[in-house]
Design a protein that fits this description.
With about 160 residues, the chain is an alpha+beta fold. Helix content is about 35%, strand content about 25%. The N and C termini lie far apart (about 35 Å). The protein binds methionine sulfoxide (SME).
Length: about 160
């Protein structure tokens, strides 16, 4: 897919996500729809999920709605794995080849690359979107920019 086609696809997805977020279903149903839409539409998004900061535990993420294979990593401590590193630093983590990342929690042997983008509401990190791909080096700065916009939309209902 050309960069132009991909950015058109991302623009269309942002409009669809905007509509999902503005709908009248529950927050979890909306988050689940966003995961499903992204996984079904973007060919290299093989697992899409939200991890949310657990308000009841110190520096721990809890798995929220997701689309794809179930994962054993339903709770992740800050600093542990790619998700935990993104949570600890508040920064996007983009890993082209997970086999070369020593601080990594494997969910599925088919996963080759991963991107995690933090969600921030009023200056406070509340969670993150996590995407796995079965393709090495699947994600680019276009995905990062797109997913930051997805996070901004989703943050409206958090
Ligand atoms: N691979 C992640 C764990 C979450 S799963 O990808 C769903 C990590 O290293 O934090």
């Amino acid at each position: 897919m050309s960069k132009h086609d991909r950015n058109n696809l991302f623009e269309r997805l942002l409009r669809q996500i905007h509509a999902i977020i503005g709908g009248n279903r529950s927050r979890n149903e909306k988050l689940e729809s966003v995961c499903r839409l992204l996984r079904e539409t973007v060919s290299y998004y093989d697992w899409v999920g939200f991890y949310l900061v657990d308000p009841e535990r110190d520096r721990e993420l809890i798995l929220g709605p997701f689309a794809g294979e179930p994962t054993e990593h339903t709770r992740i401590r800050f600093g542990v794995g790619i998700c935990g590193q993104a949570a600890a630093t508040g920064k996007t983590h983009l890993v082209d080849d997970v086999s070369k990342e020593s601080n990594y929690l494997a969910c599925n042997i088919n996963v080759k690359s991963e991107i995690v983008v933090p969600m921030v509401k009023e200056g406070v990190m509340i969670g993150q979107i996590d995407i796995d791909s079965h393709t090495i080096g699947a994600f680019s700065s276009d995905d990062e920019a797109f997913l930051k916009q997805v996070c901004q939309l989703v943050t409206e209902i958090m």
